[in-house]
Design brief:
Elements: E1 18-19, H1 23-26, H2 28-39, E2 44-48, E3 57-63, E4 66-72, E5 78-82, E6 103-105, E7 109-110, E8 117-118, E9 124-126, H3 139-142, E10 146-152, E11 155-159, H4 167-171, H5 174-178, E12 187-196, H6 200-205, H7 213-216, E13 228-233, E14 236-241, H8 249-254, H9 261-275, H10 282-294, H11 301-318, H12 328-334, E15 337-340, E16 344-348, E17 352-361, E18 364-376, E19 389-390, H13 398-414, H14 430-443, E20 449-450
Parallel strand pairs: 12-19
Antiparallel strand pairs: 1-20, 2-11, 3-4, 3-6, 4-5, 5-10, 7-8, 8-9, 10-11, 12-18, 13-14, 14-15, 15-16, 16-17, 17-18
Bound molecules: FE2/S2 (inorganic) cluster and fe (ii) ion.
FE2/S2 (inorganic) cluster (FES) binds next to loops.
Length: 453
């Protein structure tokens, strides 16, 4: 029987059909193992560099039972500390009610319980009646615990394990594949978060494959059918579309559609802008809407695509927004998005990106904090000021609501008697198997098992 098969030992074997048992999604024991072995020893995306531009700016980041303070120190470097007071364990910086995280600027962090005070280097600078300890309160006993922190792609990454290996090495090959897209130059257009009744992996897996598009987003099928792939990339994975013959990879990525390509491009762009508000920009939409006026009837699809992208690039350049130039072959290999292990998805393009993240909600395997953020290139200093908005599922863009409806239903379904585990599509959903393959290596439980015929 399939579910009795052997655990997959090498990533290549993920191309074979596998089954992933329910425990990874619903067991409290599994969630606890994740806290101890995954969340406390892996690099996690915790914010954007532009969230803390000035000395003293800080944000907090909560992950399972842990909380981290990320701040810009006096020398301009970024530091991260455990958000807990060494005295008697009060969380140092509270998350304001209803907010995703705390954010502000501080010269000193003063504990609200007995007033111990810490500078931006995490050193304790004030202890009331310190003499009472007879001199044993060494710097080591009173400083804030250090958390490893790094920057890549304009994101701030933390690792609770202060002896973590280099961030860059951890992110490969994703970092090298995504560098040409210059994600660090993008700024947020919107960012929303919500608490869902599903495991964090159920949430991530709702967005890491294109196999669900016909079933969940049937409207998109009008814009043409493309075959999507998923690939294991070491710890990480990526997805993309196979380009139809004769079309540029960029066009496959943007799913140009069928019929008069001038009109279908505009329809697709307007639909995406209005119903997803991601994966495109105002410039791309506006230029798509001019195609029927500016190009003769009968212009072949590849030419429409080329004219559209070249014109949009020029329109943006005129307002000081310069898209990086990426080699088409590199674009093809990079696909449409990357799943950075364990819980970050980056849907990249030369002028915008869409990121999803999901984290456990405390120690409850049936709940998660889900976040979506859309970025694009703006003219210098014209980026809007955004913050995380708690947004009820019904107030997200309609296309995302379609995905959300699956998430809680999957969590419920997985608890059904006799459900024997997930059987992801070996070609289109290999990213699901890849996540569990890597997770099992980290926590020593679960993992995809080969379905033996
Ligand atoms: S717990 Fe922080 S000063 Fe006492
Ligand atoms: Fe979707």
């Amino acid at each position: 029987m399939g579910e009795m098969g052997k655990v997959v030992e090498v990533a290549d074997e993920l191309a074979q059909p596998v089954v992933i048992g329910p425990d990874a999604y619903i067991s409290a024991e599994f969630a606890k193992a994740e806290r101890d072995k995954l969340w406390r020893s892996h690099w996690l995306q915790a914010g954007r560099t532009e969230d803390i531009p000035n000395v003293g700016d800080y944000i907090t980041y909560d992950i399972a039972d842990d909380s981290v303070i990320i701040t810009r120190a006096d020398d301009g470097t970024i530091r991260a500390f455990h958000n807990v007071c060494p005295h008697r364990g009060r969380k140092l910086i509270d998350t304001p009610a209803g907010q995703r995280n705390a954010r502000g600027n501080k010269t000193n962090i003063v504990c609200g319980f007995h007033g111990w005070t810490f500078n931006r280097e995490g050193k304790c600078t004030f202890i009331e009646h310190q003499d009472d300890w007879n001199g044993v309160l060494t710097e080591d006993r009173t400083s804030l615990g250090k958390v490893a922190v790094g920057e890549w792609g304009g994101f701030l990454w933390v690792n609770i394990d202060s002896n973590a290996g280099p961030l860059r090495e951890y992110l490969e090959p994703a970092a090298t594949m995504l560098d040409p897209f210059k994600l660090e130059n993008m700024r947020c257009r919107w960012r929303k978060w919500v608490i869902f009744e599903c495991n964090w992996k159920v949430a991530m897996e709702a967005f890491c494959e294109t196999y669900h598009v016909p079933g969940t987003h049937p409207e998109f099928m009008e814009f043409g059918q493309f075959r999507g792939w998923g690939r294991n990339q070491g710890k990480h994975s990526n997805i993309g579309y196979d380009a139809p013959k004769g079309q540029e990879e960029d066009a496959a990525k943007l799913r140009l559609g069928t019929g008069d390509p001038r009109l279908s491009t505009a329809e697709m762009q307007n639909f995406t802008w209005e119903n997803a508000n991601t994966n495109t920009t105002r410039t791309l939409v506006d230029v798509a809407n001019r195609l029927a006026d500016e190009l003769p009837e009968g212009t072949p699809a590849p030419d429409v695509s080329k004219y559209w992208l070249t014109t949009a690039r020029a329109v943006d350049e005129a307002r000081g927004v310069v898209w990086p130039v990426v080699d088409p072959q590199h674009t093809a290999q990079s696909g449409t998005s990357w799943q950075i292990f364990p819980n970050q998805q980056i849907g990249h393009a030369v002028n915008n990106m869409l990121c999803y993240q999901a984290r456990p909600y405390g120690d409850n395997p049936d709940m998660c904090i889900f976040e979506g953020a859309v970025y694009e290139l703006y003219p210098e200093s014209e980026a809007p000021a955004t913050d995380w908005e708690y947004t009820k599922p019904e107030d997200w863009p309609p296309v995302l609501q379609q995905d959300f409806q699956n998430m809680t239903a999957v969590q419920k379904g997985m608890k059904n008697a006799h459900w024997r585990g997930a059987q992801p599509n070996p070609y289109m959903e290999r990213t699901v198997a890849s996540l569990h393959y890597n997770l099992a290596k980290v926590i020593g439980m679960g993992g995809p098992k080969k379905i033996e015929s």
